[in-house]
Structures are given as structure tokens and as C-alpha cells.
Design goal:
About 70% of the residues lie in helices and about 0% in strands. By secondary structure, it is an all-alpha fold.
Amino acid sequence: MKHNGYEYLLSSIYYQGGSTNQGMNDLVYQKMQNEYGNLNHQPAHANINGGYAFKKSFLVVRNYVQQAIKDGMKNLRLKMKVADVTKLTYIVAMLNREFFDKKSLDLIIASANSVFSQYNLKN
């Protein structure tokens, strides 16, 4: 998944007439993606430091995604269907777990985007 899904999610939730949220720019996601790519190209002994860098940037992205979903649910609480609230609540709970899998995070972002896209958010 490209970082566009990440940027789309955050811009959908935090759109304020052109202003952006601190974590919305795709550089945060791009940094995590680059560090993820570096994990596979480093010797085994170098993965310790590279793994730490990836985990650190992954946590930043994961926290931004989690907070965006919570804020989106809060902003749309009166408009959302019960099934969508349940799905997003489950996604938030998944983000609370201790995991460092970029592919899983990308799937979570795509799932959240599919729910929020039904509500014609401005981005």
C-alpha cells in the first residue's frame, strides 16, 4: 500500500479548510516505509538498530491512525451506522495491541478508509 491511504485517512478526518494536522503529511508514513524496506536489505546484525528505528516510526504512524479514527468517530457519532461504529471500535482495539506488522497496519488503514468514505468527508 502506498502512503496515500494514510494521507487520505488523516486528511479526511482533519480537513480544516486547507490546514493540516501535524502527522498528516505523508513524510511520517514514508519514513516508516523506508525503514521497513531497510530491514530486508541489512545484514542480520544490523537489524537490531534498524528494527528499533522501524518500530519507533511504526508506533508514530500507528498512533496517528488510531487517534484519527477516534476523532472521526467522535465527529460523526450522530451520523454513523451502528455496524460502522462497531467496525471502527474493533479497529481501534486492534491498534491497541502490540504488533509491528506494516501489512496489517495498511489493511487497517484501508478498512477505516472504506468506512469513512461512506460519510462524504471533505478532503
